[in-house]
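Lecture 7 notes: from sequence to structure.

We start with a single chain of 95 residues. Read the sequence below before looking at the structure.
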Amino acid sequence: MSLGAGPIRTFHYVTLPLSRPGIIAGALFTFMASFDEVIVAIFVSGRTATTLPKRMWDSVLLETNPTIAAISTMLTLLAMLVRVLPTVRRGRNTW
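Now the structure, written as tokens:
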């Protein structure tokens, strides 16, 4: 803003790119933490509504299906890709 840019332009070109990694990481962790809230989903949703955590819980209890293992593997790989891909793209080692 000291060089003449307005507040919207400053937010779009400076603030948003700097805060984007934190926003994405927070959204990803919140999404993954929501799967841990099975008890809340069971109590809040009732008998008729089916949320994804409740469906996964029922699947683990009642079915012998590798779908849940596949979903959890995909979520873990997604979290790893979110962390590794920007590092590889920049060509730096920040481990």
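The CA atoms of residues 1 and 14 lie 10 Å apart. Keep this in mind for problem set 3.
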